[in-house]
Amino acid sequence: MKSIKDYLNYFEKSDVPKWLKLYKKGQAFNAKEFFSEKTVFYPGSGTDGHAVALFGGSHAAHSFIYADDGIKAENIIEELKSTTNGFQGYDLFEIFELKEKDIVPYGWRPTLAYDNLKNKIQKMSSFARANFAFLTILERKPLFDDRHGPQRLAILFLGADGIATYDAIYCQPDSYQSPFALLIEDYGFGGNYDSFGKNGLLEMTANSAKIFPKYILTNSIDRLWPAYMSLDLEPSVGGMHGYHRELYKKCQD
Length: 253
Hints:
Layout: H1 4-11, H2 18-21, H3 31-35, E1 39-43, H4 50-56, E2 63-67, H5 73-80, E3 90-97, H6 100-103, H7 118-124, E4 133-140, E5 152-158, H8 162-170, E6 181-184, H9 201-209, E7 215-218, E8 228-230, E9 236-238, E10 243-250
Helix pairs in contact: 8-9
């Protein structure tokens, strides 16, 4: 059975974006350049590097958005400098702080506005008061080659609510494009106010805006959004509990 990484490498392999390849330290963040490329979105990410290991390691995507309002920036930076997890084989080349206007210059208005969701939508407003926002550029260590992953990767880390972040970045009238992939992981004791999976606010937001990822990576078919089909690939182990995650593809409308 083919692995997820092999599948992505064969069907979705792409070159390092020009802006990322030519980036020099000290340059300003260009939202248009970043969001115009394929992005992988991971709500409630913590410091789990599995998305980077799969989608980055296969050269399928080079830009990632990690959103989690329950982790500290210093823990992320410490993990990026470690030699384990999905960030292994890379050095932290650049890091710089961002403001909300750098990411969503025209602001954010919630896509969902139903009265019966008022309390949950108020909790989503944490995007507007994110604990932190910074972009990191990782550069591959000299001892590794293309078989490990691309020369450079870019990861946008946000200390913000995952559902609100998806809405603000992908579902606004002036948003660039849908996410290439979404990693759904509803940790049982994570304390999140709503599910990222099926019938949760995240799926409701995507349905309302008609904005869907091409791929979903998840460890449970029970959490899978409707209209996604199995690719019958070998599961990939990742996450804080070593879950066996499978890749699903959006069905044609």
